[in-house]
Amino acid sequence: MNQIEGVILDWAGTAVDFGCFAPVNVFVDIFKQAGIEVTMEEARGPMGMLKIDHIRAMLSMPRVLALWEEKYGRMFNEEDVNRLYGEFEPVLMASLSEYTDPIPGVISTIETLRSQGLKIGSTTGYTNSMMEVVVSSAKAKGYSPDHVVTPNDTNSHGRPYPYMIYRNMEALKLSAAWKVVKVGDTTSDIKEGVQAGVWSVGVAVGSSEMGLNEQEYQALSDTDKEAVIARTKQGFMQQGADFTIDTMAELPQLIERINGLLEEGRRPGTINM
User: Fold this and answer.
1) Three-state secondary structure along the chain?
2) b vs e for 125-145, b when ≥16 Cβ sit within 10 Å of the residue's Cβ?
3) ∠ CA(174), CA(176), CA(181), 5° rounding?
4) What is the rounded distance in angstroms from the CA atom of residue 125 to the CA atom of residue 127?
5) Which residues have a Cβ under 8 Å from the Cβ of 13 and sit 6 or more positions away?
6) Rg, C-alpha atoms of the chain
7) What is the pLDDT of residues 1-41, one digit of tens each?
8) Of 170, 171, 190, 100, which Cα lies nearest the Cα of 136?
9) Quick check: 157 and 179 in contact, CB under 8 A?
10) What pLDDT shows up at residue 80?
11) Calculated CA dihedral for residues 42, 8, 125, 129, nearest 10 degrees
């Protein structure tokens, strides 16, 4: 049948950790310790990537690179990347379990999708050791996908490479890329889905792209909520997303729509052409 067989979700900012705050402050802090003041926007820019790749991407940003060269009189090297990552990982690990609350609506959405026979996979920018903390803590709070793939499982080829999606497809026995939906909250997630040839969906509320915690978001007026959602969704579309949704609660209805498109012979990447 021409229907969606599985959904692959990102973790932080999509399924758990509203606003994806676990890694952000740590990135800011380790750069500050190195004498480089980075902004929250710069720290969030590469979000979704394998974390050592994230550090490398931050160091490559023109403004950050200029500050580095001004302070150290040279270009950064892999020794610098590894040193920063060596500072990053233990600090993140110490606080990671505090950022595993499922985002509102996720658990009920997963229950609905499973009742319809869909498999639930997941990809992440976290390593295996980080995910041991996240998976066990999230499971205790009611969220547990059918399969978890990290960049450790793909020879450190994380997003935007498509390989984590393919590992999920293999493990969950999903028969074709166009029968898979990938949902994420960062530009890296969108690129991962696009490059895998699956339906790529960006979720706005709770996302790293939006960058607000739950209290900050709820404090906005309805008009301001609409504006920040629209801005976030526009960013996803510019990266090639097939669709965007406000919240995960909209996902079952979107999958019904995609199933209709599949019956018409439509495929990922053709909707916004």
Assistant:
1) CCCCCEEEECCECCCECCCCCCCHHHHHHHHHHCCCCCCHHHHHCCCCCCHHHHHHHHHCCHHHHHHHHHHHCCCCCHHHHHHHHHHHHHHHHHHHHHHCCECCCHHHHHHHHHHCCCEEEECCCCCHHHHHHHHHHHHHCCCCCCCCCCHHHHCCCCCCCCHHHHHHHHHHCCCCHHHEEEEECCHHHHHHHHHHCCEEEEECCCCCCCCCCHHHHHCCCHHHHHHHHHHHHHHHHHCCCCEEECCHHHHHHHHHHHHHHHHCCCCCCCCCC
2) bbbeebbebbbebbeeeebbb
3) 75
4) 7
5) 19, 20, 47, 184, 185, 186, 206, 207, 208, 209
6) 18
7) 799 999 999 999 999 999 999 999 999 999 999 999 999 99
8) 100
9) no
10) 97
11) 150
Give residue 185's identity as a one-letter amino acid code.
Answer: D
The closest of 67, 215, 50 to 149, measured between CA atoms, is 50
Please identify every residue annotated as catalytic: 10, 51
| Tokens 């926007």 belong to residue | 41
Q: Which of 20, 12, 27, 46 is nearest to 217 (CA)?
A: 20
Task: Please say whether the beta carbons of 234 and 207 come within 8 A.
Answer: no
Which residues share a beta bridge with 180? 6
Task: Report if pTM > 0.85.
Answer: yes
Give me 213's structure tokens. 């915690």
Looking at residue 1, what is its pLDDT?
77
CA distance 71 to 152: 33
